[in-house]
Amino acid sequence: MENSHDLATYRRRSFAPKRWSALRQRFSWVEEMHHTPQDPEHHGEGDVGVHTEMVLNALITLPEFQQLPAQQQEVLWAAALLHDVEKRSTTVQENGRIQSPGHARRGELTARQILWRDIPTPFVLREQIVALVRLHGLPLWLLERPEPERLLLTAAMRIDTRLLALLARADLLGRQSPDQHINAGTHRSVRAVLP
Predict the structure, then answer these.
(1) Coil/strand/helix, residue 94
(2) Close Cβ partners of 156 (under 8 Å, ≥ 6 residues apart)
(3) Are the beta carbons of 108 and 85 closer than 8 angstroms?
(4) Which residues contact 39 (CB under 8 A, 6 or more apart)?
(5) How far apart are CA 42 and CA 44, in angstroms?
(6) What tens digit of pLDDT does each residue of 141-167 get?
(7) Taking the CA atoms of the chain, what radius of gyration do you get in angstroms?
(8) Model confidence over 49-93: pLDDT tens digits?
(9) What SS3 state is found at 99?
(10) 28 vs 88: CA distance, rounded Å
(11) pLDDT over 70 at 9, yes or no
(12) Which Gene3D superfamilies has this protein been placed in (predicted)?
């Protein structure tokens, strides 16, 4: 009987091969990302698929990511792949702006289904991944919310905040935005708030 925490077993079944073109061919939800627009003010790089590929590329170049144990790298990589999966169902255009309200909440549910049905993932790892998907935007707006300490403590009960900070940094680095200087400042805020 397999140990549900066995990394070798998980890696054999995980997101290999990890080439973007292979992921697009294998999973319809990856292909759908390329048909989901984003607001050019914050995502000049284009659609959700282009952004997600850029996030993955940014993530694997971060020195902190490279220093993580292999299992945490797998968890974080999967969360980066899935972090905007439900922009496809939540994207609307209002007042000339493209928005995706609730995409992280819906994405948590979809990620759980994908990691159960399409890519069988051990429960403990699956729940780490879906929590990262749900909370991926928290570091970016944490300091603007009431009771940021409470929000951070609540998040810390679900996930390793170091992984959340890395995901948020990759999310910022994986975009082209006219307000890059603001993104750089937010990047520093992420590092200050989350280890």
Answers:
(1) strand
(2) none
(3) no
(4) 97, 98, 99
(5) 6
(6) 888 889 989 999 999 999 999 999 999
(7) 16
(8) 999 999 999 999 999 999 999 999 999 999 999 999 999 887 788
(9) strand
(10) 11
(11) no
(12) cca-adding enzyme, domain 2 (1.10.3090.10)
